[in-house]
Structures are given as structure tokens and as C-alpha cells.
Amino acid sequence: MLEKVILQAPIFLLVAIRCVGLLMTLPLFSMRAVPMAAKVALAGYMSFFLMNTVDFSAYSGFITEDGALSIQFLLIAVGEGLIGVIIGFYISIIFAAFSSAGQFMAFQMGFSAASTYDALSQVENPLLGQFFNFVAMLVFMQNQWFQRLFLGGLSKSFTTMTTISLIQNQQHFMSFLLRGLTKLFTDALIIALPIMGTLLLISICTGLLSKAAPQMNLMSEGFPIMILVSFFLIMTLMPYMADFFVRSFRHGFSEIERLFDIFGGGGK
């Protein structure tokens, strides 16, 4: 194994840089609780198994016969790391939709003040946002999307995406990121809208009743009612939300495959 890595050290280095970039931005693996040594070791094993499947013939002019590296090769290595970051960042965008939906719900429920550090997204996040994040992660692992990403998506990216193709297809790349950000807010609103709409109706009803009978003081009782109704709706709608999570992941991976096809010359 070590002799093979040494003989193809430049290719192994390029593959490892892309794998490290992916792991550094991919949800769950990007957590600070995961040791850096574990990330580097996993990237090294992934690079060894993927090294024979990659096609870096476009880089042959940047690697000299004696194995010395040039400045152009270092720039290509930076581009390989950027490709890995792009793939991991897009997966993070998909997860951000579920966290944003939880934040929308928490704001309407009055839970927005109950924010703690979320180790998964590494930001201050309301408890409801963390809950949807964990549910999305469970759905992601249960449907074996990690295996599809590593065994299918990552290996396919080596056959289609290179630093040179990334520069040549800047317009498609920017459109890909903009569609991802648009999909983020769309999915978040779709998930949160039923509960937000119900809570808005409850707020309107309690406001009208409090105006008609101020001595009832229904506004002070509105928060417990909204919290109970929200939890009941979340429990009732959870199977449908899980199905929506699966569809969101499927759509996200289809977008990534579409980007690979465009970079490989198979799409427009």
C-alpha cells in the first residue's frame, strides 16, 4: 500500500485534498468533536481506494516526469480542495433548510430565546432547530445517503470535475449554488408553514377574544396553548416531514449529479 502511494504521490495528494475538503464541510464529519486525526486518516483511506478510479489526464502537463511539483500543480491542488468544499457545502445547505424550518417554528412558538450551541451546525440554534437537524441526520443515515455520497458521488466527481473544468464552467457553478440557496428557503418555508399558519390563527383568535373580554387575560395563556398545539402538530406531521426530508435529499443529490453531467460534457 505504501509503495503504491509513493509511486503515485502527486495523484494521491490531489485525491486526498479533495477528500479532506469534503470531510471538513460535510455535516457530522465537520463537527469539532471529530478529531482531526480521524478526518485525515479517513481521507487517506478514501484516497487510496479511489486513486485507481480517477482520471487526471488533464493534469499530466503540470506534473513533470521526475515527479517534481510546479506552481501550477499547487494551484490545481487548491482547486481540488475547493471542489471538495463545494460538494460538502451543498450538502450542508440541504441540512440548513431543516434547521431554518425549526428556527421559524421556534420564533412563532416563543422558543427563539431557548438557543444553545448546536454541535452539528456549529452555531447558536434554537432547540427546535437542533431537533430537526438530528431528525434529518437520522433520515440521512438510515437511507444510506452517506454511502451514496462517498461511493457514488465522490467517485463520479473525479471522472467529471477537475479544476480546469471548474474554471471553464463558472456560470453553471454559480447557477448551481444559487439554486441551492433558493431551495434552502423554499424547503424551510414548506416545512414550517403548516405550523406557522396554525399558530398565527391561534394568535389572532386569542387577540380577538382578549379584545372582547379583557378580564379573561387570554394573551398570557396563549403561549402554553401555542406550545402544546405545536408539539401536537409536529408529532402528527412527523411521518410526512420525514418523507419530505427524503425527497429533499434525493433532489439535492440529483442536482449534484446534474452538475457532474454538465462538467463532464453530458448536460447543458
Could you describe the 3D structure shown?
- There is one protein chain.
- The protein has 268 residues and is an all-alpha fold.
- 76% of the residues lie in helices and 3% in strands.
- The protein is built from nine helices and two strands.
- It has helices at 2-7, 9-25, 36-50, 71-109, 127-142, 145-160, 163-168, 170-212, 218-263; strands at 115-118, 123-126.
- It has a two-stranded antiparallel sheet.
- A hairpin with a 4-residue loop joins strand 1 and strand 2.
- Helix 2 packs across helix 3 (36-50).
- The longest helix has 46 residues, at 218-263.
- The radius of gyration is 23 Å and the shape is elongated.
- The mean pLDDT is 78.
Labels describing this entry:
268 residues, mainly alpha, two-stranded antiparallel sheet, 76% helix, elongated
Instruction: Please count the helical segments.
Output: 9
**How would you describe the shape?**
elongated
Give the low-confidence spans.
Answer: none
What is the number of strand segments? 2
What structural class do the secondary elements suggest?
A: mainly alpha
Q: Order of helices and strands, N to C?
A: HHHHEEHHHHH
